[in-house]
């Protein structure tokens, strides 16, 4: 009896507390999930991170040393990169997070959404032609940002430390500054040329030069408000007002767009492959479906791959044949699942993929026209996203890829806030329903609509074996993202390369359109004899001007190994 009374009293007291917090405006996003506060024993002998720069690695190390878990570290990394990796790290963009927490998989979609005033034809002129650059530069290109809400949701559900504590490193970098390295300085210079006075970019970033200590006081103020008030500041507070004010007379985003933004917990794509459980990104990413299709079709074609050396002409041909089919599906079927029913189960079904794999011609490139193409694949996709991989000693893992699309996004910086805004609207199909060069109508699934999320290729991925995390991996690269992750997984598991070598090895890419064209990276071009032999098979070789940037952690037994791509300025660290 006494116990019942005590329970009643504490429930009433809790309700009162919740009410007063609500009226103070702090519980706007009331936790929909009870936090798992159960103490668990460590199962690994260390935590580990693989991230895009050393400042984010330092932030993660600090958080782990203060007792934080993988989610705390991931959120600290995301906010740090928004300051020190401003070309792609962000709070003005969005992304995806794949998690494995206490033995269960989760996926958080914090992708940008189209503003309420967006229309299907907003990037077309009177004659119905695409207005060049309108979805790429300036206020018109901006989708409603999701990163702050995403980090808030993830930390609220799974973090151990106080929210404020995980933002502390980012605030310090913004207020006290960080030293600019060569790669960032070069990217800033290129961006200044690209935006060429079309936006206010240089007013904020003109002084970002190699070797200088770069401070961002406006951004420090925003991050401090977010630390004190939570995501509410960004979506309904002073920061929301600054974003909405900057848009007035220029762009579509209003305060209502920000107030109505929601991150979404979705079912991740899960598949069995080679004794592992692959946990990866569902729509609105095309990446998870694409990765599973690639892995499964390659496994189904084992007889054709037998004795074929890695990255030989025949290997490049067979992989390209598989990629051709994956990209045909991508163009036809992938879009925002809140607006369009994406047949994920069918697209990753073994029987379906066996049929597709059987169409692969082992001798020559199959006719592009016969492989159901769509508009989406022909569109150049921006590649300049960034990724971070984290595991903690309790065996939890976070794989998150986030983006403002191109380097420095739309080139618009919110006055008084220092937030770089994305150009994610470019990931929609600007001109859907119009027949492509093969006369096929496609990509309606990815047409612009208010509140819709544009199709992405980001593929934050976790592999588990027997319920334990085995690999955490992701990369930037636009449509190259899932073909890159696929190749590293292949190198590592099928060819038994050490993770470091698997990440460093040559990568190539084919995506159905342009027909029979294989792209290579500047880091390791396809040239010399290899180029001649690939061309002799009927392919056109094309260089692209960017490299990927894989961040990966592999766990063997109880020991993590972390690797950052030698192509970037990433840092990987195992933290005792
Ligand atoms: N903006 C790149 C992607 O979402 O894949």
UniProtKB/TrEMBL annotation:
The keyword Signal appears for this protein: yes
Active-site residues (renumbered): 385
Region listing for Disordered, in residue ranges: 358-379, 557-576
Signal peptide boundaries: 1-34
PTM per Swiss-Prot/TrEMBL: Cleaved by autocatalysis into a large and a small subunit.
Record-linked SUPFAM superfamilies: N-terminal nucleophile aminohydrolases (Ntn hydrolases) (SSF56235)
Pfam families in the cross-refs: G_glu_transpept (PF01019)
Catalytic reaction annotation: an S-substituted glutathione + H2O = an S-substituted L-cysteinylglycine + L-glutamate; glutathione + H2O = L-cysteinylglycine + L-glutamate; an N-terminal (5-L-glutamyl)-[peptide] + an alpha-amino acid = 5-L-glutamyl amino acid + an N-terminal L-alpha-aminoacyl-[peptide]
Pathway: Sulfur metabolism; glutathione metabolism
Superkingdom of this protein's organism: Bacteria
Keyword annotations of the record: Acyltransferase, Glutathione biosynthesis, Hydrolase, Signal, Transferase, Zymogen
GO process annotations (BP): glutathione biosynthetic process; glutathione catabolic process
EC number: 2.3.2.2, 3.4.19.13
GO molecular function ontology, one term from the record: leukotriene C4 gamma-glutamyl transferase activity
Protein residues bound to L-glutamate: 111, 403-405, 427, 456-457, 478
Biased composition annotated in UniProt, kind: Basic and acidic residues: 358-367
Assembly description: This enzyme consists of two polypeptide chains, which are synthesized in precursor form from a single polypeptide.
Protein's UniProt name: Glutathione hydrolase proenzyme
Organism of this sequence: Paraburkholderia lycopersici
């Amino acid at each position: 009896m006494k116990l019942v009374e005590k329970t009643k009293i504490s429930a009433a007291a809790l309700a009162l507390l919740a009410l007063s917090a609500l009226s103070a405006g702090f519980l706007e996003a009331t936790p929909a999930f009870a936090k798992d506060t159960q103490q668990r024993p460590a199962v690994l002998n260390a935590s580990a991170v693989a991230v895009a720069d050393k400042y984010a690695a330092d932030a993660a190390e600090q958080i782990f040393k203060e007792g934080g878990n993988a989610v705390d570290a991931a959120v600290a990394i995301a906010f740090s990169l928004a300051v020190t990796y401003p070309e792609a790290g962000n709070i003005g963009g969005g992304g995806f997070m794949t998690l494995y927490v206490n033995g269960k998989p989760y996926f958080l979609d914090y992708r940008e959404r189209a503003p309420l005033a967006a229309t299907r034809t907003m990037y077309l002129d009177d004659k119905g032609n695409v207005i060049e650059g309108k979805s790429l530069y300036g206020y018109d290109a901006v989708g409603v940002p999701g990163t702050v809400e995403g980090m808030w949701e993830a930390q609220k559900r799974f973090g151990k430390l106080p929210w404020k504590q995980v933002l502390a490193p980012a605030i310090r970098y913004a207020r006290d500054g960080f030293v600019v390295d060569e790669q960032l300085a070069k990217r800033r210079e290129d961006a200044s040329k690209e935006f060429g006075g079309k936006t206010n970019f240089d007013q904020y970033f003109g002084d970002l030069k190699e070797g200088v200590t770069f401070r961002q006081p406006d951004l420090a103020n925003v991050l401090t408000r977010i630390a004190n008030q939570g995501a509410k500041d960004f979506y309904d507070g002073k920061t929301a007002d600054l974003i909405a004010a900057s848009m007035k007379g220029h762009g579509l985003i209003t305060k209502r767009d920000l107030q109505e933004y929601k991150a979404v917990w979705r079912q991740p794509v899960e598949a069995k492959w080679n004794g592992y459980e692959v946990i990866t990104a569902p729509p609105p990413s095309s990446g998870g479906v694409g990765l599973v299709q690639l892995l499964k079709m390659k496994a189904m074609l084992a007889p054709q791959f037998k004795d074929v050396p890695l990255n030989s002409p025949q290997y490049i041909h067979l992989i390209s044949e598989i990629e051709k089919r994956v990209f045909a599906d991508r163009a036809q079927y992938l879009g925002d699942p809140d607006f369009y029913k994406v047949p994920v189960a069918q697209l990753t079904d073994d029987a379906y993929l066996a049929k597709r794999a059987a169409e692969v011609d082992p001798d020559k490139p199959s006719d592009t026209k016969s492989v159901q193409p769509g508009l989406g694949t022909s569109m150049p996709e921006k590649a300049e996203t960034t990724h971070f991989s984290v595991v903690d000693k309790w065996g939890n893992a976070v794989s998150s890829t986030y983006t403002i699309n191109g380097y420095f996004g739309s080139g618009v910086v919110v006055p008084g806030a220092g937030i770089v805004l994305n150009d994610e609207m470019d990931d929609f199909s600007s001109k859907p329903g119009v027949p492509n060069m093969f006369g096929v109508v496609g990509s309606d699934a990815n047409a612009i609509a208010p509140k819709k999320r544009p199709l992405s290729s980001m593929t934050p991925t976790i592999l588990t074996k027997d319920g334990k995390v085995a690999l955490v991996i992701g990369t930037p690269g636009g449509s190259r993202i899932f073909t890159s992750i696929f190749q590293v997984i292949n190198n590592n598991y099928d060819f038994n390369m050490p993770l470091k070598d698997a990440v460093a090895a040559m990568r190539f890419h084919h995506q159905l359109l342009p027909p029979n064209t294989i792209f290579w990276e500047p880091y390791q071009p396809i040239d010399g004899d290899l180029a001649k032999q690939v061309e002799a098979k009927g392919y056109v070789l094309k260089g692209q001007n960017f490299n990927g940037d894989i961040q990966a952690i592999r766990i063997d037994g109880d020991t993590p190994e972390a690797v950052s791509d030698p192509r970037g300025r990433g840092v990987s660290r195992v933290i005792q």
